[in-house]
Amino acid sequence: MTAVDYTVIVVYLAGMLALGWWGMRRARSTSDFLVAGRRLGPLMYSGTMAAIVLGGASTIGGVGLGYQYGLSGAWMVIAIGLGLLALSVFFSARIARLKVYTVSQMLDLRYGGSSGLISGIVMWAYTLMLAVTSTIAYATIFDVIFGLDRVIAIVLGGAIVVCYSTLGGMWSITLTDMVQFVVKTVGVLLLLLPIAVVKAGGFDAMKSELPHGYFSPMGIGGQTVFTYVLIYSFGMLIGQDIWQRVFTARDDRVARLGGTAAGTYCLAYAVAGAIIGTAARVLYPKLGAPDDAFATIVKDALPVGVKGLVLAAALSAVMSTSSGALIACATVANNDIWARLRGRTLRTAGASHDEIGGNRVFILLMGLAVIGISVALNDVVEALTVAYNVLVGGLLMPILGGLLWKRGTGAGALASVGVGGLTVIALMGWKGILANEPIYFGLLASLVAYVAVSLATKPTDAAILDVWRRRLAGEPAAPASEATSPATTGA
C-alpha cells in the first residue's frame, strides 16, 4: 500500500460521511427517511438495488468460491441475481403499489392484522444478523488496508455506516449506494477482472494449469446449487432489506425494469468473481483459506492507485449491504415491534419531527447493537446461514401465499411461520447449522401448515380482501384507510 492508495480510500470514506450529511437535509418526512420519498428513477433504483444485494459475501466470498471450485463458484451470486430477477418481473410492481414500509405491514394488510408482530420478530432477527455479518467483514478489509486490530476495524467501519445511515436514513443510503455501485463496477469488473486474467496468463494458461473440473458449470455440485437457489433466490423475494428498496421506486415500471437491470448486473458480477477467484488459484495455489484470495490478489497483483480503488470497491460492497440491512432492521424494530407493543400505528403518508427522530434513534440503537454483536461473534458463515434459514423457512410461504392464493388465512400464516421456523431451528440443532436438511424440511413443513390450517379455518374477511385487492391494483382506498387499515395497526 502506498500513500496514493491510502488517499483513495480515505477520500472515499470521507465522501460517504459527506453524502450522509447531505441526505439528512432531504429527509423531511417518514417517507423520505425510510423509503427515499418513493421517487427513485430507473438509474438510481437499479444502481442502489444492485449495491445492496452484492455485499461482502458476493465480493470476497464469491471470489473465494471461484478459488475453491472454479467457474461454478459463481452459483451463489447467480442465485442472488435470479431471485432479484424473479422479484422484479413477477412481484415488484404489486409490492410497490401497496405503499407500506415493511413486510409485516404487508402481511397485516393481507391477513387482517393477525401475524405482524411474530413475522416482525423473525424479520428483525434476520436483518440484524445480516447487518452483523456485513459488519464483521470490515475486519478483513481494514486489516489488509491499515493492519488494524479486528475490534478496532469493526468499530471504525461500523461507526461510519451508522453515522451516515442515522443522519439521512434511506436518502443518505441511496446516495452512498450509488457511489458504491460505481466504485464496485470500476474496481471489480473493469479493473480487477481483466488484470487478474492477464496476470494468470489468459484463459488458455488457466485451463492448462487447473483441473478440468474448475471449468465445469456444475463442478460445485448439483445439491449445493439447489440449496443456494432455495436460500438465496427465495431470500431475495421476501427480505425486508430488499422490499424496502422496492418501496423506493417512483412507479411500477421503475420497480420492474430497474430491478431487472440490477438482477442482470448480479449475473455478470457473479461470473466476474468466479473468474477472478480462478485466476487467483493459478497465481497463489497454496493459500490458507479460499476467502483470502480476494485480498491476496489485490495486494500483490494490482498497481499503485488501482489497489486503493479496488479495496475501496470491496469496502463499498460491504458498506452497501450493511447500511441496507441496518435501516431495514431499525425500521422493523421501531414500526413492527416497538410501535405495536405500545399500541401505536405508523402513518403511510406525512410525518412529524418525532416520527423521523424516532426512526433515527432506532437506527443508532440497532447500529450500536450490530457493532457489539459483531465484536463478540466470529463465524460469519454460520450466522448468515441461520438468518436466511429462519427467514425463508418461516416467512416464504405466508408471503408468497398471500400474494398468490386468496384462500390463505391469518391463522394459516401464523401456523406457517411457527411450524416452519421451529422446524428449521430444530433441524439446525440436530443436523448442524450448515446442513441442507433444515431448509428442505422447514419449507415443506411451512407449506403443509399454511395450506392445511388455511383450508381448516374461516376464509379471510371479504372487506379485508377488498382493501388488499384495491391496494394491489393501485386503486385509492377508503379515506380513512391510511390511518386505520390493517397494514398500519398492531397485531
From TrEMBL:
<keyword id="KW-1133">Transmembrane helix</keyword>
<feature type="transmembrane region" description="Helical">
    <location>
        <begin position="260"/>
        <end position="284"/>
    </location>
</feature>
<dbReference type="InterPro" id="IPR038377">
    <property type="entry name" value="Na/Glc_symporter_sf"/>
</dbReference>
<feature type="transmembrane region" description="Helical">
    <location>
        <begin position="151"/>
        <end position="174"/>
    </location>
</feature>
<feature type="transmembrane region" description="Helical">
    <location>
        <begin position="117"/>
        <end position="139"/>
    </location>
</feature>
<feature type="transmembrane region" description="Helical">
    <location>
        <begin position="386"/>
        <end position="405"/>
    </location>
</feature>
<dbReference type="GO" id="GO:0005886">
    <property type="term" value="C:plasma membrane"/>
</dbReference>
<keyword id="KW-0812">Transmembrane</keyword>
<dbReference type="Pfam" id="PF00474">
    <property type="entry name" value="SSF"/>
</dbReference>
<keyword id="KW-0813">Transport</keyword>
<feature type="transmembrane region" description="Helical">
    <location>
        <begin position="73"/>
        <end position="96"/>
    </location>
</feature>
<feature type="transmembrane region" description="Helical">
    <location>
        <begin position="439"/>
        <end position="457"/>
    </location>
</feature>
<feature type="transmembrane region" description="Helical">
    <location>
        <begin position="6"/>
        <end position="24"/>
    </location>
</feature>
<comment type="similarity">
    <text>Belongs to the sodium:solute symporter (SSF) (TC 2.A.21) family.</text>
</comment>
<keyword id="KW-0472">Membrane</keyword>
<feature type="transmembrane region" description="Helical">
    <location>
        <begin position="361"/>
        <end position="380"/>
    </location>
</feature>
<feature type="transmembrane region" description="Helical">
    <location>
        <begin position="412"/>
        <end position="433"/>
    </location>
</feature>
<feature type="transmembrane region" description="Helical">
    <location>
        <begin position="309"/>
        <end position="333"/>
    </location>
</feature>
<feature type="transmembrane region" description="Helical">
    <location>
        <begin position="45"/>
        <end position="67"/>
    </location>
</feature>
<dbReference type="InterPro" id="IPR001734">
    <property type="entry name" value="Na/solute_symporter"/>
</dbReference>
<feature type="transmembrane region" description="Helical">
    <location>
        <begin position="220"/>
        <end position="239"/>
    </location>
</feature>
<dbReference type="GO" id="GO:0022857">
    <property type="term" value="F:transmembrane transporter activity"/>
</dbReference>
<feature type="transmembrane region" description="Helical">
    <location>
        <begin position="181"/>
        <end position="200"/>
    </location>
</feature>
<protein>
    <submittedName>
        <fullName>Sodium:solute symporter</fullName>
    </submittedName>
</protein>
<dbReference type="InterPro" id="IPR050277">
    <property type="entry name" value="Sodium:Solute_Symporter"/>
</dbReference>
